[in-house]
Design a protein that fits this description.
Length: 166
């Protein structure tokens, strides 16, 4: 999706990983921020992974770059919370909404949720208590890349968010 009118008729939107500052600037330049916000306000499911989580947050801790945000989910995130690219890692996560089997998360220059607002459900945490995935209504955000795991449970979970609109 590159143009606001391309949102017409979609059932859900996934904002992928990448470079959140650039993604925010491009979305602003192409006039996508307000249409995505409107889609979300009308109950449209949106899922942000990694950089997508950053764009969906209400606040970035130490946002020295002052990047554009969608401000969809009431969370504050810290970008690159675990370090640089070479500090990327994988971890098994307990995600009760997905069942008892741990979910294998792939974290690449990953953010972490530092503050969770009212109405936000924490879906999983690291052993140290830091938040790695959240849901607020039809909005989903993960600090990791579920598409890189050999496990489609998060994708199926997101599809379930689409059902009320169908």
């Amino acid at each position: 999706m590159r143009l606001p009118q391309e949102l017409d008729g979609i059932e859900g939107l996934i904002i992928p990983g990448g470079e959140s500052t650039t993604m925010g600037q491009v979305a602003e330049r192409w006039g996508l921020l307000e249409p995505i916000r409107a889609f979300s306000e009308q109950g449209g499911p949106v899922w942000g992974t990694c950089a997508g989580m950053i764009l969906m947050a209400r606040k970035i801790v130490d946002n020295s770059r002052s990047q554009p945000l969608l401000s969809l989910i009431d969370v504050a995130v810290r970008r690159n919370a675990f370090g640089r690219q070479v500090d990327s890692f994988e971890a098994d996560l307990d995600v009760p909404v997905l069942g008892e089997e741990p979910f294998h998360g792939v974290f690449i220059r990953a953010p972490v949720v530092e503050n969770v607002g009212k109405g936000v459900d924490v879906l999983c945490r690291f052993e140290d208590g830091r938040v790695a995935a959240v849901r607020q209504g039809s909005l989903l955000a993960t600090a990791f890349h579920p598409e890189l795991a050999n496990d489609d449970r998060f994708h199926r979970y997101f599809i379930e968010l689409l059902r009320p609109r169908q």
